[in-house]
From TrEMBL:
Pfam family of the protein (one): NHase_beta_N
SUPFAM superfamilies found in the cross-reference section: Electron transport accessory proteins (SSF50090)
Source species of the chain: Rhodococcus olei
Cross-referenced InterPro entries: CN_hydtase_beta-like_N (IPR049054), CN_hydtase_beta_C (IPR042262), Elect_transpt_acc-like_dom_sf (IPR008990)
Superkingdom in the source lineage: Bacteria
Protein name, UniProt field: Nitrile hydratase beta subunit-like N-terminal domain-containing protein
Positions of the Nitrile hydratase beta subunit-like N-terminal domain: 31-104
Length: 109
């Protein structure tokens, strides 16, 4: 299911993290990044880069197979990145560099 190039995504899984298993763990107010992620996905769909229905199908398929150990709320970001890698919209190196830049910014704040 996965090919070389997804290590950048798989490496984001916290080894001490655990997948949510019950409804109370899944219920709750979305974090600010989740709302931003959904807005980004809407823009990608609007511009024709990644259709929302296609993305949701990918979330179902990849979220229950390749990315099953990721927290449910993080899967949309991981699957979106996976799909953009597949389509050649971004490269693994570009994604890795952006992730480093974002982590650096958070550490400064």
């Amino acid at each position: 299911m996965t090919r070389p190039g997804y290590e950048v995504l798989l490496a984001t899984l916290d080894p001490d993290g655990r997948r949510e298993r019950s409804l109370p763990e899944l219920d709750g107010k979305p974090a600010p990044w989740e709302s931003s992620m959904q807005a980004t996905c809407e823009c990608l769909s609007w511009r024709g880069a990644l259709d929302n229905l296609e993305r949701r199908h990918a979330e179902d398929t990849l979220g229950e197979s390749v990315y099953v150990d990721f927290p449910v709320r993080a899967r949309s970001a991981i699957v979106t990145a996976h799909t953009l890698l597949d389509r050649g919209v971004i490269t693994e190196d570009e994604l890795r560099a952006k992730m480093v830049a974002v982590r650096d910014r958070f550490e400064r704040e």
